[in-house]
Amino acid sequence: MDDETNILDQLVSRVADETLRSRLAREVELLRGSRRFGLVFDRHLPESVKLTDHPIRKGVRVSLRDESTVETWRVVSFADTTRTVAVLDGDGGERSVSDLVVVREFGEPIYPGLQSIERIQNGPADAPWHTVVNGENFHALQALRWTHRGKVDLIYIDPPYNTGNDGWIYNDRYIDNNDRAKSSKWLSFLERRLEIASSLLEPTGVIIVAIGDEEHHRLRMLLDQMFGPENFLSDVVWQGGRKNDSRYVSNGADYMLIYAKDELALAEREIRWREEKPGVHDVLVAAKVVWDEAEHDEQAAEAAMRKWFRAQPKDSPIKALGRYVYFLPDGTLCRDSDLMSPNPRPNLQYDILHPATGKPAVRHPNGWRWTRETMDRMLAEGHIIFRSDPSVPPRLKKPLEDAQGQVARSVFDRERTHAGRHLQNVFGDTRFPYPKDHEVLMRWIRLAAPKDAIVVDFFGGSGTTTEAVMRLNAEDGGTRQSILVTNNELGAREAKRLRNEGFHPGDPEWEPKGVFEYVCRPRISTVVTGTRPDGSKYSDGLAANVEMFRLTYLDPGRLRSGREYGPVAPLMWMEGGARGERVDEVPDDGWALTESYGVLFSIDALTPFANAVAKAAAGEAP
Ligand SMILES: C[S@@+](CC[C@H](N)C(=O)[O-])C[C@H]1O[C@@H](n2cnc3c(N)ncnc32)[C@H](O)[C@@H]1O
Prior knowledge:
Elements: H1 7-13, H2 18-34, E1 48-51, E2 61-64, E3 73-78, E4 85-88, E5 93-96, E6 100-105, E7 112-121, E8 129-134, H3 137-148, E9 152-157, E10 169-170, E11 173-174, H4 182-200, E12 201-211, H5 216-227, E13 232-239, E14 253-260, H6 263-268, E15 274-275, H7 280-293, H8 298-310, E16 326-327, E17 333-337, H9 372-380, E18 384-385, E19 395-399, H10 400-403, E20 406-407, E21 411-413, H11 417-427, H12 438-448, E22 454-457, H13 464-476, E23 481-486, H14 492-500, H15 515-529, E24 545-553, H16 556-560, H17 565-575, E25 591-593, E26 598-600, H18 606-617
Parallel strand pairs: 8-23, 8-24, 9-12, 9-22, 13-21, 22-23
Antiparallel strand pairs: 1-6, 2-3, 2-6, 3-4, 4-5, 7-24, 10-11, 12-14, 13-14, 15-20, 16-17, 17-19, 18-19, 25-26
Helix pairs in contact: 1-2, 3-4, 3-17, 4-5, 7-8, 12-13, 13-15
Bound molecules: S-adenosylmethionine (SAM).
């Protein structure tokens, strides 16, 4: 169809020869169909992961431990009987085994497993366990696709921003501003992971991606392409203060792009995305005190409450909440709200009497919002307010707690340094330069996900998301469960220092300095137990259960012959909801059943297993 604002269409329409005109128009349409609109970028080579603890065997793919090249080879054979020198394919030649490390390229089949490294039970036995996985997130996501496909309510990620100096590693190389493919590598890196991540979301699920200025515009296009522009919910701006490193304009903003998996499905769910107005909590606390001091007398309490509001500072958000306040006979603090029906209906047109005049109160043109029966109950229970001026229609006393829900704003101010100070306080020293703010995260998790949500973060870093989920549960009694994945990367400077000293990933001098071992793991354990790694007291701890794992790569042969059940057990337990006991060993009977899941090890045990499942489903003892 031609478009009157399009130059090409205009020119075609001027062609006098009708046949030529229609042929040209057809060709233009065809061209349009093949035109690519959107984000175009080079897909980069698949990435790979180094398995530093895997033995060098015939047939495995290897690269150099010192990372002096990105090349990989297959081990063809060994040059000696003690297997200290490997013969590699292609131009690899012969290399000492101690210089090599096993690599797995993305796309090659892998068999993931989880090895438990720390288990902290500080919450109720029936509470869900939070899990933290140290490993390559691409493979961890593949494992989660098996255990959590379509089950996740919220994904929050804070990927490397690709600033050119943020220590982002693509295929073992720190990416800096000299890399001409910097952005397309970053997009390839993210696209691969987002593709799997999207399959984890349930239809009402939401993804929030934190991002800086550098890739914000490209990321939004990528997300539009992957999730659909119709599922875009918001582009949140977090103003974190001034940044003085720019020559022209200080952009201290950080962004969060928010998409729904399926906005239509989300819209049908219960209303979320509402939050308390600032100050409501303080007002409710004050109201409790006032109510008791007024000895539960409504009028005295209302007068005292108005006095309390008058005493608040002029610029406080509390001031705006104090215009009309009332108490219900049970001490609930209320503001007032309209009593008019949104649509006129005959059964809502009736008279109610003003108590002071004894005459019918001014009636709303559409009628009242309830039927006579409900209105009589609301009048009897003291929910209706009559003003002394009879020309003012009566109004409803609405609890302040329900009345103040407001849609979340997409712009907010919060000092960026707050999160760093918090982490410093957890450890008693400085360990991680740019954690996200757990209180900001708590706000967005509260808004975007239900109280029993499964929340996934696969760029977990210092573990902020796990802390936010645990604190939120402690605050509102929720049963949210967090699944966090992070690798054990080192900051670029520290990595360089260690490399200069001759150390590499996998070495005992290297691993304890990584973000998982040095920051995430001790942070989470400190926050839950309340005791720092050095034994000093940080807090009273949190009532939560958390287990930390290492992602492992299982041997397919051993797996097939049933000798690798141990590292698969946590995945099954996670699939069953990560609650209660876990079936960690193969039982002699060939089957096992817990309160939340069961495992059948041998088909011969099918009958007793099925009977036990049926009994459990009927609520009978096994
Ligand atoms: C920007 S930081 C996230 C910080 C985090 N939001 C916090 O508050 O601590 C990104 C983190 O992702 C981790 N990371 C980067 N690439 C990864 C990968 N391929 N697999 C797992 N983790 C990765 C890095 O170690 C880094 O700590």
